[in-house]
Amino acid sequence: MEMTEKTTGSGSARWGFYLMGLLILAMGLTLNTKAGLGVSPIISLSYAASVIWNRNFGDMTFVLYGIFVLIQAAIHLREKGKAGRSLLMKDALQFPLSIVFTRFLNLFSAMVPDIQAEGKNAAVLFEIRLLVLALALILTGIGAALSLNMRIVPNPGDGIVQAIADCIHKSIGFTKNCVDVTCVTITVIISLVGSGKLHGIGIGTIIAMVVVGRIIAVFNHFTKEKLIKLTGVEE
């Protein structure tokens, strides 16, 4: 009886942290776009595409996430047996998760106002944007770490980081930095070829490329072991 209660409690805590992580991540990504200093590197591709081709940001993010899922599936095809089938199942489940997650991006985007310049001088406006950016980066890092550590169904933008990290045997924080640099590089190319100017790339994007991976690493350093014990997640 005690074992059953413990298992049930651990499972509830695991799902609670997972859902919390996804919501925190969605808010972090949204605030990053609202800061007006450049969007998060992982979604810079979808943001640029939405601006260049005048498409819905959430819809373009869903397309990007679909590409991420296919890349993960290609990596996981190397795994054999039950473990491989389990990973591929999680990859497939990322498609419906992407639909829900990108709807939350649209919802939060509609709820959170853009930072307006009226009544503020340039210095004050920049300070406000920096504060919003700092909050966005902290939330993005914590949300990504929480959802990934629960090992349920990752958000595709973070799932691809997890898949590559497992494949090359590097930390999530380091791999996140590498994936961010790759996404920004491709975004720059698409922007210049598609419209002749950059879209979504700014000082906030560059800061995020360095900081988010470090936030994940620091958050995991202080909390991952405790969360694993609390939720019973097997690594």
Short description:
The chain has 235 residues and is an all-alpha fold. The protein contains eight helices and no strands. The protein has helices at 2-34, 44-52, 57-76, 81-111, 122-149, 156-168, 172-194, 203-231.
Topology:
Elements: H1 2-34, H2 44-52, H3 57-76, H4 81-111, H5 122-149, H6 156-168, H7 172-194, H8 203-231
Helix pairs in contact: 1-4, 1-5, 2-3, 2-7, 3-4, 3-6, 5-8, 6-7, 7-8
Q: What can you see in these coordinates?
A:
This protein is mostly helical and 235 residues long. The chain is built from 8 helices and no strands. It has helices at residues 2-34, 44-52, 57-76, 81-111, 122-149, 156-168, 172-194, 203-231. The model is unreliable at 1-8 (pLDDT under 50).
Provide tags for this entry.
single chain, 235 residues, mainly alpha, 8 helices, 79% helix, globular, disordered N terminus
Beta-strand portion reads under 5%
The number of helical segments is 8
- Secondary-structure-based class equals mainly alpha
Tell me the total number of β-strands.
Answer: 0
Low-confidence stretches: 1-8
Q: For the CA atoms, what is the radius of gyration?
A: 18 Å
What distance separates the N and C termini?
26 Å
- Mean pLDDT across all amino acids: 86
Order of helices and strands: HHHHHHHH
The description of the largest β-sheet is: none
The coarse overall form would be: globular
> What is the helix content?
over 70%
